[in-house]
Specification:
By secondary structure, this protein is mostly helical. It has 15 helices and 2 strands. The protein has helices at residues 7-29, 31-39, 58-84, 90-107, 116-139, 141-144, 150-177, 189-212, 223-242, 246-277, 281-309, 311-331, 335-363, 371-400, 403-431, and strands spanning 48-51, 54-57.
Length: 438
Amino acid sequence: MEQKNNKKVIRSWAFFDWANSAYNLVITSTIFPAYYTIITTTPEYGDKVSFFGMRFVNTALSNYALAVAYLIIALISPLLTSMADYRGNKKIYMKLFTWLGALSCCALFFFKLDTLELGVICFALAAIGYAGGFVFYNSYLPEIATADQQDAVSAKGFSYGYVGSVILQLICFVFVLKPELFGITDLSFPPRLSFLLVGLWWIGFAQIPFKVLPKGSPNFSVEEQKKVSGGFKELQKVWHQVKKMTLMKRFLLAFFFYSMGVQTIMLVAASFGEKILHLPTSSLILVILIIQLVAIAGANIMSYLSKIYGNVSVLISVVVIWVGMCIAAYYITTAVQFYVLAAVVGLVMGGIQSLSRSTYSKYIPSNTADTASFFSFYDVTEKLAIVAGLASFAYIEELTGNMRNSAIALTTFFIMGLVLLLALKAAERKISAKPVLD
């Protein structure tokens, strides 16, 4: 790489977000959850499905599949982070995960009730491809931009991702809402076509960063073994440091518990709207777009409030709001109530994610040069929270037969996170007359 802050390189890097964000919007959040719930709900078996001979509640099965996908990423992300530190082969792995995710989305074109196993497996593989690719995408940031430009470059990637995903969502929206304009009579065709378009969009636009980003030189020497173990050794080293850091240790515990709730709600919102309130796909798409727009405002509002009241105090307030929303979700019965709840979710979702990351960064010792390993530890903590949250949400739905019970159970995770944040606040006061983050 000859120079950093090259506009062409930065623009091409941002197009990776443009390429893969369509997956997050169409597959994770809108069309796929609605289509999946509809085709797996039958007059004969209700919401029960058979997966390789085992019976599951349909939405519980999809949540189990996502949980397994994120567990795999949590287990291999230390390895991925370690490999991303070695210029020379990061693009190879970036391409590998991109092709895995994109081809899995394309394969969902063949997903119908009689190919349930194929659909669920491809759904999980697409999640692995998406999350795995992002590890390498993020690792390019310090390589293509100087420290003073990284915030702006990171924001450019986020903006490209939002615009790209919305454009493809609207294209898919036309096919789903107005199939008659194209002479489509098979109502399963528009959503399946959407999955195919996501895969083609993803791999197509990914060619821009693949072509322009620095290639490096592949290295499969004896050093490879060190790369495999290096990431796990770094995590172990960070864990030993964290155990001695009272404030960071308490924050990470709180973060783990409230993230179980936050991340689960983000991933199951569309399924909840379709299954419990029977909202049409068009309404679900509108809800997710509302959440995305409001999340941007929420992140900025929380950032402003944190300067006045301190990070931990704002996080405590936000977690209290999350508890209230879980209780509200148990009782809502109308589309309007769901829209209002979605707007509040969007407001606090963007805020709690951005504020959690910045709070964690402030607890990292200022004299350490190993910030990548600390953030790898943070990422693994978040992924494990997703696994635990999704698995428990699915299990409670299967146990009780009602997704509302799963929603109300999430309050337990938020309350545990709230208690730990209050303990963190008390520890800050004890350690210093002036709290670290206030």
